[in-house]
Each structure stands twice: as C-alpha cells, then as structure tokens.
From TrEMBL:
Bilayer-crossing regions: none
Catalytic reaction equation(s): 3-phosphoshikimate + phosphoenolpyruvate = 5-O-(1-carboxyvinyl)-3-phosphoshikimate + phosphate
Quaternary data: Monomer.
Free-text function comment from the UniProt entry: Catalyzes the transfer of the enolpyruvyl moiety of phosphoenolpyruvate (PEP) to the 5-hydroxyl of shikimate-3-phosphate (S3P) to produce enolpyruvyl shikimate-3-phosphate and inorganic phosphate.
Gene: aroA
HAMAP family reported for this sequence: EPSP_synth
Protein name from the UniProt record: 3-phosphoshikimate 1-carboxyvinyltransferase
Originating species: Marinifilum breve
Length: 425
C-alpha cells in the first residue's frame, strides 16, 4: 500500500501509543514472575504481539482485556522454536532469557530482522557457557542450549543495549552471581529503563558507571501491576509535525521518563520550537526553525524524525551518531540519505555526523524501505512540502504505531491511502 501526504496545517491533541520498549520488557518480566501480573495501558503494536507470542510459548497464560493484559506463568514450557517477528528487542532480550532453560531452542524471525546481525548475541552467550549454533551464519536462525555455566563475561556494548537488557533480565534467575564487564555501551538510557522496570518486579541490579554489572543470583521476580507509559519514540514525529506546521498537544507523556527519546525535547528547544507543559500534556508550537546540533548516539531512533525537522530549518543541521543506524530495520543513515534525496535534499554523511541542509522540500515519490521510523519521518516532512510526498509500503508503521496515519489525519494531516502507484506527484 501507499500513502500521499499533502502540505497541511496541524492542530489538535493526541495521546501517543504506549511504549513498545516498556511493553516488551514488562511481558518478559511478568512471564518470569510467580503469580499474575497486570500490564496496564498495554501497547498493541506488532513488536508487542511478537513478545506476547514468545511468553506464551514459554508457558505464560496471557489474557487480553480492553485496558489491560494479565500475564501468569503457572508452568514452564521448553519451546523448541520461537519467532521474534521483526523485533530487534525481542530477539536480543529473549535470547538470554530462553537460554536459562538447558533444553535446545531455535530462535527465528521474519522480514527485516533476518538481515540484522546476531554475532554479538552469540559471542556474549558463548562467553557465559551457552552452546550456540548458527545455521544462519551471522544471521538468524540461532540455536541455544545447555544453560549458563560461567559467572563472568566481557560484553561488547558498542552495537547497542538490547542484548545487555536481556542479560540483566535473565541472570538474576541463575543460582550463581554473575559479573559482566561491558565495553563501549551505547543506548545507555534504555539500560536505565530496564533497571527501573526490574526494580518494580523486585529485581536488583548493581553497576559501576555502566562498565561493571554485578547481578546477584537466586532473585525472585515478583508479580506486580505495571503501567506502560506513552511512547516518546512515537511522540517524536508528532512533535515534529507541530513544530513544523502549527500546534499539537500530546497527552499522557511522562516528563520525567527514563525513555531515551525524551531527548527530542532538547532538539526542539535548540530549533526554537515553543514547548509548554501542563501536567502530563505537552504542547508544541511552531516558532523558530533554526538549524541545530544534536548528539543521537544514545537515542538513535530520533534520527528519522529529527531529519524530517532539519530539512525545513534555516541552515545546516548536524546530527551525531550515524554509526548507530546501520543495523536497525533498515540501514537508516543510507536510507535517510536516499529517500530524502528523492525529495531533493542532499543529505551528507561526514564520518559519524549527518549534515542536513535546510530549505523547502520539493515533493516526490519515496519508499519506507519497510522501516516504520522512515515512513513516519517522510510523512511529517511531507506536511511542509511544496508538492505532495508519496510513501510506498507505509503500512510498516504497525511495528510500533499501527494508528499513526489515522492520528496524523486527526490533527489535520492531509493523508490519502491507496493501493496503486500514483500519477499525482
Ligand atoms: O531497548 C530498547 O527498547 C531499544 C533500544 C535501542 O536499540 P539499541 O540498544 O540496539 O541501540 C532502540 O534503538 C530500539 O528501538 C529499542
Ligand atoms: C530499532 C527499533 O526497534 P528494534 O531494534 O527493537 O527492532 C526501532 O523501533 O526503531
């Protein structure tokens, strides 16, 4: 399917969907607990569905109500195979959890995840004594068995934090204590989110400045009621829409959240946008559109929406952390350059920095490259384009935000969805 976005003014208020990062962690933690946990304000995107399928395979009973999901694991099952959908987090978080069980388990996925590397998972688990097989030779599927045997390991954090999140969730269930030496950790705020959530489930993690993590064994997950926050990553493109084309209020956002992408507020301030909090509602209004400098090394998912903002700013915007983009749902640095190139924006990549020249967007035909954040970024950039921006394969937004285009229309976005190639642009 395709969508056409027209120049439009933005006005209105929206509650962003719940955080898929928190939701997947909550499902895993609830499945590791004894008794019934209730996940309130659950996220119902594709990645959350993938995580739900995995905990069910682990033996958890999952009951979906309208406003909550109840999770209870009365029996431990040894699944022969689990499918992580397209979710990087489900792959990297559940691998160490599934590895607690010595029975062999094969982990596979579909779509974009089949192109994302698995070597850091295998290296880390092998260092902890898990027997790993990789018929996919660097890619999925992987097979794990034998259980944890070693109590110390060096973990490479340079590729991201998700695998460390999985280890921090799994290792408290071992009998022995474990010490991890983590090198060059990236996406650090996501680790703060993990540690905070684990505290709610009764698990304690100690670390020395994100380098040495000491994980006591024999800890018991406690069932709890956990409320998932509204998602700052999904809020980001909507905030950019307001900053570019009028005014938008986002409801139920936590101003003190551990979510990495709350950092969008710094970029919006630098850009000159007017920001106003009223309790948990944030109103963003177009004011300046000044080029800005921003370091996205630890919040890489902000790259696409920030590029959508930057293409309309006065001057060259510089965003640091391009090396963090290579192994996402697409190679996002290259894809942003290619797709915005189709709209006549000559983005440059200089070492680890992306340089985005500001100006007026021309319009044209683009493709999401099956990457939800690219689809959303092209859409909000299109709100301020001279001519329409068409986006192919836009339905990939279901990975994190199934109602994105419906919500964009609600706040005034000119959104037309259709099935065939357009002659409009
Ligand atoms: O832990 C998480 O929920 C996530 C961590 C980040 O990945 P990396 O840690 O691989 O950078 C982020 O890009 C991803 O969308 C979600
Ligand atoms: C990179 C992302 O997710 P994941 O790695 O969990 O697939 C994302 O949501 O932008």
């Amino acid at each position: 399917m395709r969508v056409r976005i027209q120049n439009s003014n933005i006005k209105g208020s929206i509650t962003p969907p719940s955080s898929k990062s928190m939701m997947q962690r909550a499902l895993a933690a609830a499945a590791l607990a004894k008794g019934e946990s209730t996940i309130l304000n659950p996220c119902r995107c594709d990645d959350a569905t993938a995580a739900t399928g995995i905990v069910q395979k682990m033996g958890a009973q999952v009951i979906q109500d309208e406003t909550a999901i109840r999770v209870c694991r009365n029996e431990e099952k040894s699944p022969e195979q689990v499918i992580v959908g397209e979710s990087g987090l489900s792959l990297r978080m559940f691998s160490p959890i599934l590895a607690l069980n010595p029975e062999p388990v094969q982990i596979n996925g579909r779509g974009s995840i089949l192109k994302r590397p698995v070597h850091n998972i295998l290296e880390g688990l092998e260092a902890l004594g898990i027997e790993c097989k990789n018929p996919g030779k660097g890619l999925l599927p992987i097979q794990l068995e034998g259980g944890y045997k070693n109590n110390t390991a060096v973990i490479n954090g340079a590729l991201g934090s998700q695998f460390l999140t999985g280890l921090l969730m799994a290792l408290p269930c071992r009998k022995e204590d474990t010490t991890l030496e983590v090198t060059n950790l990236k996406s650090i705020p996501y680790i703060n989110m993990t540690i905070d959530l684990l505290k709610d489930f009764g698990i304690e993690i100690n670390h020395d400045n994100y380098k040495t993590f000491t994980i006591k064994g024999n800890q018991q997950y406690k069932a709890t009621d956990y409320t998932v926050e509204a998602d700052w990553s999904s809020a980001a493109p909507l905030l950019v829409a307001g900053a570019l084309k009028g005014k938008v209020t986002l409801e139920h956002l936590n101003p003190y959240s551990y979510q990495a992408d709350i950092a969008i507020l710094d970029a919006l301030k630098k850009c000159g946008t007017s920001l106003h909090w009223n309790g948990n509602s944030l109103t963003v209004e177009k004011k300046g559109l000044n080029a800005f400098e921003f370091d996205a090394t630890h919040c890489p998912d902000l790259f696409p929406p920030l590029v959508a903002l930057a293409v309309h700013c006065n001057g060259d915007t510089r965003i640091k952390g391009v090396h963090r983009l290579e192994h996402k749902e697409s190679n996002r640095g290259i894809v942003l350059q290619k797709e915005f190139g189709k709209l006549a924006v000559p983005i440059r990549i200089e070492g680890d920095e992306m340089v985005i020249p500001g100006g007026r967007l021309k319009g044209g035909i683009t493709n999401s490259n099956n990457d939800h954040r690219i689809a959303m970024a092209l859409a909000v950039a299109g709100l301020n384009s001279k001519q329409a921006v068409e986006i192919g394969d836009h339905d990939c937004v279901a990975k994190s935000y199934p109602d994105f285009f419906k919500d964009l229309r609600k706040i005034g976005g000119g959104v037309a969805e259709f099935y065939f190639k357009s002659q409009f642009v």
